[in-house]
Amino acid sequence: MDRLTALRLLLRTLDRGGIAAAGRSLGLSATAASRALRELEDDLALRLFDRTTRHVAPTEAGRRLADRIAPLLEGLDTAMVEARELHEEAAGTLRIVARRSFALRHVVPHLAGFRRAHPRVEIDLALTEQTGLVPAHGVDLVIRLGLPPGKSYSGHRLASDRRILCASPDYVARHGAPATPDAVLRHPCLTYREADEAPVWVFATPSGGRQEVAVGGPLRSNSGEALRQAALDGMGLVLLPEWMVGEDVAAGRLAPVLPGLPAWPERYRAEIFAVHARTERLPAKIAAFVAHLLAAADPAA
């Protein structure tokens, strides 16, 4: 029998006044309980109890050992209960790393509602423009472009991969709108910066193929929000996710260009996912937050 159970049996024996009763409280037979205590005594090279046919009494060593381990075992039991509660009830600190542009528009606005529903959860949110992040080193949830490779992670889709090529109505009024992908080359384009590589926009062709257009213009940035604002200010064409500019298009602040032709920046076609480590029992704080984001993404759900 493991030593931890034997120490619990020692305390129960003092509490219940007998080995048989202590054993029953732990699901052990009288024989198994008596053997466990003798093995503990052998391991410690101490006599913990004075035994007679009618009575069991702790020795001084047994009493001192019980006094020392009682608060330790109580603390261990409390810690185990708290650990179970973190899985069964949303509580504790939820550490999230999220794509900055998406988080500012579709995560941060929903934090207050989540906290009202789950007041025992504290949120530690880090924003980044990096790609390829995965839950690790104390991070519970990553909100990122696409799913990471392998089977170690689970993902929940938060937004589509649809991109919208658009410009401000003022820009279109002054410069016109391109009628073909080739005509895009004659317009200033606001592009996402990827190291030193030239930005490329990919257009789906009516025949099912693809046409790549190497674009350029007055602004390159690693911030989608910066590109969106520049487009609103009339600096040129921009190709951004629907989740970022869909409301602007609906409100008339931005005008779609080549709306019938799907387009996307090279290597940035992926959907947005909330990703966590794959586990048999997902902690309640993670499950609750993912459910909250999914409900916000689809209010009818």
From TrEMBL:
<feature type="domain" description="HTH lysR-type">
    <location>
        <begin position="1"/>
        <end position="59"/>
    </location>
</feature>
<dbReference type="InterPro" id="IPR005119">
    <property type="entry name" value="LysR_subst-bd"/>
</dbReference>
<keyword id="KW-0804">Transcription</keyword>
<keyword id="KW-0238">DNA-binding</keyword>
<dbReference type="InterPro" id="IPR058163">
    <property type="entry name" value="LysR-type_TF_proteobact-type"/>
</dbReference>
<dbReference type="Pfam" id="PF00126">
    <property type="entry name" value="HTH_1"/>
</dbReference>
<keyword id="KW-0805">Transcription regulation</keyword>
<protein>
    <submittedName>
        <fullName>LysR family transcriptional regulator</fullName>
    </submittedName>
</protein>
<dbReference type="InterPro" id="IPR000847">
    <property type="entry name" value="LysR_HTH_N"/>
</dbReference>
<dbReference type="Pfam" id="PF03466">
    <property type="entry name" value="LysR_substrate"/>
</dbReference>
<dbReference type="InterPro" id="IPR036390">
    <property type="entry name" value="WH_DNA-bd_sf"/>
</dbReference>
<comment type="similarity">
    <text>Belongs to the LysR transcriptional regulatory family.</text>
</comment>
<dbReference type="InterPro" id="IPR036388">
    <property type="entry name" value="WH-like_DNA-bd_sf"/>
</dbReference>
